[in-house]
Amino acid sequence: MCVTKASEVRFGQSNCSWSSCREGCTKDIFKCTHIHVNYKRDTKGEFVGTNFTDEALIDTIEWDLINARLYPNVKGCGYPPSVNCTDFNRNYSTPGRTFPCYYSKQTPVMVINHLDLETIKTDLLYAIIIPWGLFLVSILYLLFTYVGMKKPETEGDDTQEVISAKASKEASNYSLRSIGKTINHGMNKLMRDPDDKG
User: Fold this and answer.
1) Where do the TM regions start and end (predicted)?
2) CA–CA separation, 90 vs 14, rounded Å?
């Protein structure tokens, strides 16, 4: 069980190293809301009938953790309509507000207000099955394509090699002839028209 201890709105990127809720996981934030909560494990109805509108009463209870950070999900961000930060801040930023919550055993200062294990398991299965399935299909396609390719016929190989060799020889002869002509032309020009400077 969580109770909101304090909340504050901050401005400036240096003051917003974290935000309880941010719409858009990649954008820079210059305005953020910090919602601090206290939580207690295994309350067994301990808070029934307790009115925390008197903030001094919050400090009289022995909490398992004080000043934890509240997030809507593990990433602390999302996109509408699944995560609406305006509604989230309105619902959970009032000091004294009590609500069920989930804390992290790895990072005890991290608290989320909602946890849907079935959705998380489904997303995880999709994240594993779809990429691996596409990978296997592409490998099978490549294997079938490779096995189905015909080998070149041996009869035409000799003929093709002879044609390729002739074409290569003619191309090299042409290159050598054109280079020789260019050199001869340059030499003739130098011999007939000497430069004024000698």
Assistant:
1) 124-144
2) 24
- Contact in structure between 22 and 32 (CB atoms under 8 Å): yes
Read off the pLDDT of residues 99-133 as tens digits, 9 standing for 90 and up: 889 998 899 999 998 888 888 889 889 999 999 99
- pLDDT tens, residue by residue, 49-105: 566 766 777 877 888 899 999 999 888 888 888 888 889 999 999 888 888 899 988
pLDDT above 70: residue 178? no
Q: How far is 121 from 28, CA to CA, in rounded Å?
A: 30
Cβ partners under 8 Å of residue 34, min gap 6: 7, 8, 10, 18, 19, 20, 69
- Three-class SS of the chain: CEEEEEEEEEECHHHCCCCCCEECCCCCCCEEEEEEEEECCCCCCCCCCCCCCCHHHHCCCCCCEEEEEEECCCCCEECCCCCCHHHHHHHHCCCCCEECCEECCCCCCEEECCCCHHHHHHHHHHHHHHHHHHHHHHHHHHHHHHHHCCCCCCHHHHHHHHHHHHHHHHHHHHHHHHHHHHHHHHHHHHHHCCCCCC
Which residue from 104, 100, 36, 21 is spatially nearest to 66, judged by alpha carbons?
36
| Average pLDDT, rounded, for the chain | 80
